[in-house]
């Protein structure tokens, strides 16, 4: 489906391109619909992926967890490229449309990959599951990374595009923008909760082809709705002379190399040394002026690095909710009544449900109460909000370690240690508190990071700002993948892997204790950098 031509534009009073008609006071529903559909599609793939990798694809637990973390890391880092592409060349609207089309392609390929024959049915013993062919595995991973590319273009743009619909010079709309980040996340997580329950059941009980095909259809429908709203949106102007930060960084480097060569050439000519020296100085002065904006923007982005770096372990802990948490849940008693079994991945819905419940409480109760004491419109600052969530994440890892230690003890007492297919006589509801704490942590840290990186980068780099927020989780996923691989190799050499395919013989609880300790160290470092951080001056009063 081709994107329609953009409607006639007029420059708004706050330097944005908008339709000639009066702009809406809030993001139109179509922008939210495409984001909810994207989250439905992404979590429809990622939430239960560990089950597909260790089931139909036949991979070991440690290998599957590392592969999933590597894919997640790639998917969360690619928004840096997508955000730059949007800010520098295409604009957010066109990037969203292009990324949505790539999403539909990738999801369709995933659904088709489940239909490929393994090519070895005649060699399989009766009653045994055939190993997938190399062709099927390769095509599946290629499809998976097409989805990652789509996420890279989609994720940094849709939320920034929604926030662009607010006029920062209008007092009412400016105040509403902070609540927008809360309610945007509310809607996104509401859709995610439905996804985790519905699609994980379809994938576990009906089939993976349908489980991957439904997100493809939903994404196509959402793109159609988004295109229908084209004439109602506000747009940023991508001026020909205003290139993005990375593009101008390349130009600045090329110009510097050119000046060095010119200076070297002129200094070799004795007859005109004085004149050439003045010429080089003049050229350098002009270069400083032409690259002044680039230097300011680069400094504005680099000053965010300490906050970015001290949130990485939070992202490592977050990665466990879709890997080892899900594998743990699969070993427990998941029965509700005589017939129904809760899909292991469905427990992740408690994160989203907690967010859906807690965001209204935060927005309507916590913010007004804290506002009375702090005198700030937002109640607490963005950095205080992020730090609160990091503390809750630390507590979640402590509880996860205690619950896993209990699961291992009950498995030993029940004599099912060497029977991995027999459920441990322990209810899966024991795992709910760690999911709930993660949900509460997300309300503080995830939403806080989104607002922080959107607000603190230069205005023209806001897609890149949200991409920087996402890159925290990309790098965190790669760190998690590396940790799992190294720990698996070391502990296997010593006799028994912490991540044994039979989790009853492993020690995932030790891994959780390690993450809790790292989270504590990270929190101390974060508090230090948060205290000395100076907010970008926008006329609003901030304090750590």
TrEMBL record:
Keywords: Membrane, Phosphoprotein, Transmembrane, Transmembrane helix, Transport
Segments crossing the lipid bilayer: 96-116, 183-202, 208-228, 304-325, 345-362, 383-403, 435-454, 466-490, 510-533
Membrane topology summary: Multi-pass membrane protein
Pfam assignment, any one: PTR2
InterPro entries found in the cross-reference section: MFS_trans_sf, NRT1/PTR, POT_fam
GO molecular function: low-affinity nitrate transmembrane transporter activity
CDD domains: MFS_NPF5
Keyword Phosphoprotein: yes
PANTHER family according to UniProt: OLIGOPEPTIDE TRANSPORTER-RELATED
Similarity comment text for this entry: Belongs to the major facilitator superfamily. Proton-dependent oligopeptide transporter (POT/PTR) (TC 2.A.17) family.
Protein known as: Protein NRT1/ PTR FAMILY 5.10
Organism, scientific name: Urochloa decumbens
């Amino acid at each position: 489906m081709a994107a329609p031509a953009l409607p006639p534009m007029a420059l708004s009073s706050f330097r944005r391109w908008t339709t000639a008609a009066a702009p809406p006071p809030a993001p139109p529903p179509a922008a939210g619909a495409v984001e909810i559909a994207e989250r439905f599609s992404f979590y429809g793939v990622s939430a239960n992926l560990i089950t597909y990798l260790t089931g139909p694809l036949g991979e070991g637990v440690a290998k599957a967890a590392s592969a999933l973390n590597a894919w997640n890391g790639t998917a969360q880092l690619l928004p840096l490229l997508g955000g730059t592409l949007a800010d520098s060349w295409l604009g957010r609207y066109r990037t969203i449309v292009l990324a949505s089309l790539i999403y539909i392609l990738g999801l369709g390929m995933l659904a088709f990959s489940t239909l490929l024959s393994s090519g070895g049915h005649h060699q399989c013993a009766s009653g045994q599951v055939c190993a997938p062919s190399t062709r099927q595995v390769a095509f599946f991973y290629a499809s998976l990374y097409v989805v990652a590319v789509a996420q890279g273009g989609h994720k940094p743009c849709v939320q920034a595009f929604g926030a662009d619909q607010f006029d920062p010079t209008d007092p009412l709309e400016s105040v509403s923008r902070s609540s927008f980040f809360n309610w945007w996340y509310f809607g996104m997580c509401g859709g995610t909760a439905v996804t985790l329950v519905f699609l994980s059941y379809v994938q576990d009980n009906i089939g993976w082809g349908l489980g991957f095909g439904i997100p493809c259809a939903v994404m196509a429908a959402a793109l159609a709705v988004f295109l229908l709203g084209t004439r109602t949106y506000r747009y940023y102007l991508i001026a020909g002379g205003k290139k993005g930060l990375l593009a101008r960084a390349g130009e600045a480097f090329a110009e510097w190399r050119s000046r060095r060569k010119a200076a070297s050439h002129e200094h070799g000519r004795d007859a005109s040394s004085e004149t050439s020296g003045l010429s080089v100085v003049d050229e350098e002065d002009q270069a400083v002026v032409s690259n002044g904006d680039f230097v300011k923007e680069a400094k504005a982005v680099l000053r965010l690095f300490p906050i970015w770096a001290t949130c990485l372990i939070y992202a490592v802990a977050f990665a466990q909710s879709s890997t080892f948490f899900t594998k743990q849940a699969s070993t427990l008693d998941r029965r509700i009544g005589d017939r129904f079994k809760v899909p292991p991945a469905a427990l992740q819905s408690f994160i989203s449900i907690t967010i859906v419940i807690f965001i209204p409480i935060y927005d309507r109760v916590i913010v007004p109460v804290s506002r009375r004491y702090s005198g700030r419109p937002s109640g607490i600052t963005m950095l205080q909000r992020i730090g609160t969530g990091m503390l809750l994440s630390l507590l979640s890892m402590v509880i996860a370690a205690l619950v896993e230690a209990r699961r291992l003890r009950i498995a030993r007492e029940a004599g099912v240690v060497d029977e991995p297919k027999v459920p441990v006589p322990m209810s899966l509801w024991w795992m709910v508190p760690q999911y709930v704490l993660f949900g509460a942590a997300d309300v503080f840290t995830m939403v806080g990071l989104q607002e922080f990186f959107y607000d603190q980068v230069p205005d023209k780099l806001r897609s890149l700002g949200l991409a920087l927020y996402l890159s925290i989780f990309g790098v965190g996923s790669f760190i998690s993948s590396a940790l799992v691989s190294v720990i698996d190799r070391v502990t296997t050499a010593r006799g028994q892997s912490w991540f044994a395919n039979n989790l009853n013989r492993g020690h995932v609880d030790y891994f959780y204790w390690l993450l809790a300790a790292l989270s504590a160290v990270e929190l101390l470092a974060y508090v230090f950098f948060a205290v000395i951080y100076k907010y970008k001056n926008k006329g609003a009063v901030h304090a750590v």
